[in-house]
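Lab notebook, design round three. We kept the backbone fixed and only want residue identities now. Task for the bench partner: fill in a sequence for the structure below.
Input structure tokens:
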């Protein structure tokens, strides 16, 4: 564990506490391995609170510079808080894993975070979705992101901040629009359709008719240029990077960089309940079994644990979102109790949140956890009301999962590039089950127009289900 030796504010963890924490780490690691967990090495680093806030906003310690990161949290890529508690927990999967702990946390809090991180490290090494994405992106995302930031800084110096920012605007407006079923490194579409050979005769009569003197045989069709795209294309970042008519190399580089980071973060998004629950289960178990902790440290850490896994997250007047730490923790506790640790290790390797919730959240657990399914209904004055629905298990499961479909974004695909380069996008509203915010859609189209540099239109439906064509605002 390395201490950054920053200026420490009052109330900070003492050097003695940090030394104590450093002694705990190998002991927790050995305990975890004894239980069957396996993980790449973890580099723990103590950092000031301000650094952790920057990581929470940017998603990575050093990331491409862009104004939007200063004003938004990147749709919860990084859970910068543990449930309801104030402790920061940021770990970047890889080989090695990079874990950041706040140097002003108390010893008990960082002890819990250390054990929690080991659960994440095991999950990210062994879960199949994490493994696939890590393998494609590489295992050194922090260093890769820093290198990209440097390349973008060079582009700013060469092309000016306005042009670079406009390209980043467009790429980041589409950062959820990747296709995780396609490989990260894709070949372009074939340029030509293969030539068709002579069509065989349909039946014996046609075969004899063809052989009559003077009859013309149907010729095969010659190879012809393939339509772009040849099928609906959902990976919009890749499609624009590859096929925008006038995109320059540095702009293409930005699009592909944003796409690669979206691939890296997808498992964090798609396995959040499983992953946070697994890490919470293991920090609780390792703390309980760690006979080397003082009684005071143990009690303080367990109190922190109870804050982390409270049922509902956030300071909302009405608790509409389930705390993923709590739900995942309870599911893993039940699985290990009923089916054993070996089965739990297999589930953490094979599943994501979709199968995890559908396969393991049963009626009994939903009742025990007092899970309710809320639905939004427009109320008077345009405000939304929340109506408690009946407790159908299927509705409850799908209500939890609905925000996770397609990376939380509407399903939009590129469907046609006209001969003069105009781009048509289509909103797959049937699989989405909802209409688009048309004002927001038009703004995104304006961003796309900046890099496509030809008219862009989107076919969709409004909230009433009526068909709509949205065009970028610069179109005449």
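Proposed sequence:
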């Amino acid at each position: 564990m390395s201490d950054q030796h920053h200026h420490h504010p009052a109330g900070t963890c003492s050097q003695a506490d940090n030394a104590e924490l450093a002694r705990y780490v190998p002991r927790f690691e050995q305990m975890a391995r004894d239980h069957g967990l396996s993980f790449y090495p973890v580099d723990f680093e103590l950092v000031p609170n301000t650094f952790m806030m920057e990581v929470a906003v940017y998603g990575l310690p050093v990331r491409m510079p862009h104004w939007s990161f200063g004003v938004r949290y990147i749709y919860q890529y990084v859970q910068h808080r543990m449930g309801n508690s104030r402790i920061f927990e940021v770990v970047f999967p890889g080989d090695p894993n990079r874990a950041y702990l706040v140097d002003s946390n108390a010893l008990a809090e960082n002890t819990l975070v250390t054990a929690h991180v080991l659960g994440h490290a095991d999950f990210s090494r062994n879960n199949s979705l994490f493994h696939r994405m890590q393998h494609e992106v590489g295992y050194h995302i922090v260093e890769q992101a820093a290198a990209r930031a440097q390349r973008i800084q060079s582009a700013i110096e060469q092309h000016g901040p306005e042009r670079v920012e406009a390209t980043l605007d467009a790429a980041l407006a589409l950062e959820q629009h990747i296709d995780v079923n396609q490989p990260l490194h894709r070949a372009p579409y074939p340029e030509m359709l293969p030539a068709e050979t002579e069509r065989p005769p349909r039946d014996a009569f046609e075969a004899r008719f063809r052989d009559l003197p003077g009859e013309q045989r149907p010729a095969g069709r010659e190879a012809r240029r393939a339509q772009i795209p040849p099928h609906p294309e959902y990976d919009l970042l890749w499609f624009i990077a590859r096929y925008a008519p006038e995109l320059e190399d540095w702009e293409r580089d930005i699009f592909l960089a944003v796409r690669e980071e979206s691939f890296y973060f997808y498992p964090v998004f798609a396995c959040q309940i499983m992953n946070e629950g697994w890490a919470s289960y293991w920090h609780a178990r390792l703390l309980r079994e760690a006979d080397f902790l003082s009684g005071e440290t143990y009690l303080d850490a367990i109190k922190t644990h109870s804050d982390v896994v409270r049922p509902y997250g956030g300071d909302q007047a009405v608790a509409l979102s389930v705390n993923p730490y709590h739900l995942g923790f309870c599911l893993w506790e039940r699985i290990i109790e009923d089916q054993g640790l070996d089965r739990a290790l297999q589930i953490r390797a094979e599943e994501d949140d979709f199968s995890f919730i559908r396969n393991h959240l049963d009626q009994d657990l939903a009742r025990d956890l007092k899970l309710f399914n809320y639905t939004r209904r427009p109320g008077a004055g345009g405000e939304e009301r929340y109506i408690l629905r009946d407790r159908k298990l299927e509705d409850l499961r799908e209500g939890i999962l609905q925000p996770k479909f397609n990376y939380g974004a509407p399903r939009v695909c590129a469907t046609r590039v006209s001969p003069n380069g105009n781009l048509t996008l289509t909103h797959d509203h049937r699989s989405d089950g909802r209409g688009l915010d048309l004002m927001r859609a038009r703004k995104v189209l304006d961003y796309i127009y900046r890099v496509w540099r030809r008219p862009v239109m989107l076919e969709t439906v409004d909230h009433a289900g009526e068909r709509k064509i949205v065009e970028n605002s610069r179109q005449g």
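Keep this in mind before ordering anything: The first strand starts at residue 2 and ends at 3.
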